[in-house]
Amino acid sequence: MEFQIEQLLLVLIPWCIFFILGVVATNLVKSARARKGTAIAICVFVQMFSPDPYVERTIEMVTVEKKAPKKQQDESDEPLSIDDCK
Question: Which of 25, 17, 16, 22 is nearest to 46 (CA)?
């Protein structure tokens, strides 16, 4: 059974990536606790471009919120009838 370096790399590369991401995250947390602007900017940048799993629900909530004030405005624009004044 021949041991090849390619097989070793296939096994180790995911663990190396996981380790590197952990080190980066640790450094970001430390600098964010120290209120450094670069850490906050990087986190905001990542948050902007990361996908939102609740996009459809968020869009639906925003459209419902926009419709509610329009309905209130439409109801307030209607003229008062004689029955409303009693």
Answer: 25
pLDDT in tens, 60-69: 887 877 777 6
Buried b (16+ CB within 10 A) or exposed e, 36-54: eeebeeeeeeeeeeeeeee
Query: Could you give the 3-state DSSP secondary structure of residue 2?
Result: coil
Instruction: Say how far apart CA 22 and CA 16 lie, in whole Å.
Output: 10
Give the total number of structural domains in the chain. Answer: 1
82 lies in some domain: no
- Which own/partner pairs from 65-72 qualify as long-range (CB within 8 Å, at least 24 positions apart)? none
pLDDT, tens digit, for every residue of 24-77?
A: 999 988 988 888 888 888 888 888 888 777 777 877 887 877 777 666 666 665
**Domain extent at residue 21:** 8-76
